[in-house]
Amino acid sequence: MTDVLFGQSYYLRFDPKLFAAMQPYPPLGTLYAASILRNEGYDVALFDAMLAESEAEWAAALDRTKPRYAILFEDNFNYLSKMCLSRMREAAFTMTRMATERGVTVIICGADATDHSARYLAQGVQYIIRGEGEATLVELMAALTGKSDKSIDSINGLAYLGDDGNVKVTGARATLRDLDALPFPAWDLVDVEKYRVLWKEHHGYYSVNMVTTRGCPYSCNWCAKPIWGQRYNVRSPENVVAEIEMLKRVAAPDHLWFADDIFGLKPGWVQRFADLTEEKDVRIPFKSLNRVDLLLQADTVAALKRAGAHTIWVGAESGSQKILDAMDKGTQVEDIYNAVKRLHEHDVRVGFFLQFGYLGETREDIKKTIQMVRDCMPDDVGISVSYPLPGTKFYERVKNELSDKQNWRDSDDLAMLYNGPFPTEFYRHLHTVIHKEYRARKTLRRLRNLRPWRPSDARQVGAMLYHTLTLPAARAKLDQLANAPHKATIRLEPL
Question: What is the per-residue pLDDT across 170-218, written as a single tens digit (0 to 9) for each?
Fold first, then answer.
């Protein structure tokens, strides 16, 4: 028998858009929790839902390992876990039922379970770990296994059903501040070769994930923070480089993804990190998410390039200053333009995250965002719509307009969950229009700079012509959808 079977409920197979993209990463948060409990003397095993076909494989893992405890420790570094996709919630409920049917105690830690504790407890979950989970998990397991005589109700960071059937919530758990004290994630539990084969087959290189921070101190009013709140804690550059040295031994990656909410926020951190990657000879191409205003500080971009930056994603969100201010973003449209210029000057690729559908958005605001994409020509774009999540000011503004559907089913849903400026069909089609124009322009720019052309370029030329020729009709349909009857909420005033 195994003491603990770890798992999580994000199945790549259940997310058609990302399954097609095939860029899978192991559940990093789950690996941290497994490593920490193993250090406490527990025998642990891992079920990796990321590469599983269905929940049936979880049932097989339960039967194979026969655990005393099943812990669904969601990967809180995966932004899709924070979005609480309904298909993954269904998977968590199914996995809970499978475990309880086998007499296994179920513990869950994650954003959705933190926000909707009663729903999970009603499914048979015995304990929910709220917020950052590692310290709470260690105390809870010690109490459950008799290693300590601490009562459950004295352990901070928990929700559970009391004897009266009501949900009991204990005090808030303070976040971990000394991140260097954490053991490295339990990569030995991961089927590294399975990931490597998929990455090589689909992309020609192998990427692995890691984090250097936890949390975000900024106050974008649509950003949910059920795990770390406003806290921002950072590992030392020395500790991060030591993990990269470990990853080179156990996984030999060609590329790294730093899954931080914000990479390199602490002054001087990126510069020291760059120095160490050169000194230790661990420079590996990477992608990360950075703020545009921070990229304009001193030699930050030059240091990122030295450290191995290949692609920097930024939360551009909108080309309208009115919308950025309404979001409490704290950045200027001018910052976006200047950051892109600086990154491209250092031969670093740029990705834009764009968000449409915020309160008060007009066609003019949308046009400004499209023009920003044309002017900056980022190397990639990701498009979403405003997504109300509990705990945010944005959610409080629109909660009375939410329907029964309060979560997307998968990452390609793009449904408006409140009475936004335009209906869902408009935003879904806007996604199509922007991508058509962007892809046509990007391909044309590439082909202009490519001499001589190769036979293999014919396919790209065909795609460019298709997008160019179908764009006028797509724009006409967008205009039609914009004028369709719709009750919109137009208000930007503070709460």
Answer: 999 999 999 999 999 999 999 999 999 999 999 999 999 999 999 999 9
* CA–CA distances in Å: residue 283 to residues 2, 235, 302, 309, 323: 38, 18, 14, 9, 38
Cα–Cα distances (Å) from 137 to 35, 117, 129, 384, in that order, read: 12, 16, 7, 34
Q: Taking the CA of residue 133 as centre, how many other CA atoms within 13 Å lie in the half-sphere pointing to its CB?
A: 31
The Cα 452–Cα 327 span in angstroms is 46
Crossing angle for the helix pair 300-307 and 269-279, to the nearest 10 degrees: 30
Which residues are 338's β-sheet partners?
none
Tell me which H or E stretch contains 32. Answer: helix 28-39
Which pLDDT score, from 0 to 100, does residue 485 have? Answer: 87
What are 313's strand-pairing partners? 289, 351
> Is residue 228 very low, low, confident or very high in pLDDT (cuts 50, 70, 90)?
confident
Q: How far apart are CA 131 and CA 156, in angstroms?
A: 10
Q: What are the tokens at 8?
A: 């999580």
Residue pair 342/296 in contact by the 8 Å Cβ criterion: yes
For the segment 98-121, what is each residue's pLDDT rounded down to a tens digit? 999 999 999 999 999 999 999 999
Measured between alpha carbons, how far is 296 from 261 in angstroms, rounded to an integer?
A: 18
How many angstroms separate the Cα of 411 from the Cα of each of 83, 252, 407, 432? 9, 30, 10, 15
pLDDT at res. 491:
53
pLDDT of residue 1: 82
